[in-house]
Amino acid sequence: MLRLFEQHQIRKVQELEGMWDFQMEGFTGNFRLPVPGCWEQDPSFSGHRGK
Fold first, then answer.
1. I want to staple 31 with a disulfide (CB 3.0 to 4.6 A). Which of 7, 10, 22, 27 is the partner?
2. What contacts 45, CB < 8 A, 6 or more positions away?
């Protein structure tokens, strides 16, 4: 069968994991948190529930 397109084109990916700068509404300053991760486990946000 003659195909007029590439069958196994690998798309480019970019890893997003690492340490990210994070700002939270209602808090002053910047926070540095790991991605992937759970920001709610940071002691600074222990009383805050987000969407």
1. 22
2. 24, 27, 39
